[in-house]
Amino acid sequence: MTPAHLLEIETQAKAEAAAADSPLAIRGMTVFYDQKPAVFSVDATFQPGRMTAIIGPNGAGKSTLLKAALGIVTPLAGKATIFGAPLSERRDRLAYVPQRASVDWDFPARVADVVAMGLYPKLGLLGRFTGAHRAKVKHCLARVGMEDFAHRQIGQLSGGQQQRVFLARALAQEADLYLLDEPFAGVDAATERAIIDVLKELKSEGKTVIAVHHDLSTVPEYFDDVLILNVRKVSEGSVAEAFTHEALDAAYGGRLDLAGTAALPVSA
Ligand SMILES: Nc1ncnc2c1ncn2[C@@H]1O[C@H](COP(=O)(O)OP(=O)(O)OP(=O)(O)O)[C@@H](O)[C@H]1O
Ligand SMILES: [Mg+2]
Fold first, then answer.
1. Residues lining ligand 1, Cβ inside 6 A
2. Which atom of ligand 1 lies at the shortest distance from residue 229's CA?
3. Contact in structure between 45 and 18 (CB atoms under 8 Å)
């Protein structure tokens, strides 16, 4: 065996060890829609107990990458592991809040019912919904400041209020990994603050948060790590290392107004 072979084996072993420790590890993920690649050969290893932003222009494949990792769309190639195992063995450890536009808001359910859905996976088919469960729903709604809306139909809430309720449902799941697709889209400053406070609280409890995010100016304040995407991976790592002008330029193709990101580190 040549030194090159040994190095390759060692690199592979390291990558596998990193994947086993990672709340979400994605390898060679490739998704095509109508013969066009939406995500191409993406590897990403998300770090435990940290908050990671997935950023990139519209159509970059951010939502698709999450959906492929969650088995909502079928990739052409690639795989994802959750805490070192396939999704089917780890479903109870993750909570997903989809992009708002993809949710049917005419669905006839009250706010409390929507949050209670977060409890069902652990309750099982025959489990009884008890007073303790009701208290849990109330507590999760209180955490996002929506306790007064428990009996309202979900379709009769504003967009920001709906977003808070879906976060409450994710909280009810008591997951270890939270995947959120644009949790701040279309919400006002107060709701954004409320949501980021809850996410930071989750992080302080040791949970991992991964969120698709559009506002580049808040990336350094809100997140520890970034994954920058434009069909392919552009960069990955801590905000200090990976969130650079160069990487953003590569991802956004010079279409970006960098005025709001003046504080960015400039890579050499
Ligand atoms: N179900 C689908 N069928 C065909 N093409 C799709 C489908 N879903 C997404 N696409 C296309 O795949 C590409 C990636 O879409 P995706 O929704 O993953 O992007 P995104 O990065 O989340 O964008 P945004 O910032 O607008 O949410 C886009 O070009 C989109 O038009
Ligand atoms: Mg999207």
1. 33-34, 38, 56, 58-64, 99
2. 21
3. yes
Q: Does residue 23 contact residue 83 with C-beta atoms inside 8 Å?
A: yes
From the CA of 225, how far away is ligand 2's center (Å)? 19
Nearest CA to ligand 1 atom 16: 61
Ligand 1, residue 212: give the atom nearest the CA.
Answer: 22
**Does pLDDT of 263 surpass 60?**
no
Domain ranges of the chain: 3-256
CATH number for the region 3-256 comes to 3.40.50.300
Amino acid symbol at 266: V
Token pair 């008890």 is found at 130
Q: Kindly report the backbone phi and psi dihedral angles of residue 169, in degrees, each rounded to the nearest multiple of 5, phi listed first.
A: -60, -40
pLDDT by residue (tens digit) across 60-105?
999 999 999 999 999 999 999 999 999 999 988 999 998 876 666 6
105-108 long-range Cβ contacts below 8 angstroms, 24+ apart: 105/154, 105/155, 105/162, 106/155, 107/154, 107/155, 108/153, 108/155
Token couple for 117? 């859905």
Ligand nearest the Cα atom of residue 227: 1
Query: What separation in Å is there between the alpha carbon of 144 and the centre of ligand 2?
Result: 23
User: Is residue 109 within 8 Å of 156, Cβ to Cβ?
Assistant: no
* pLDDT of 187 over the 60 cut: yes
Residue 4 has a pLDDT of: 82
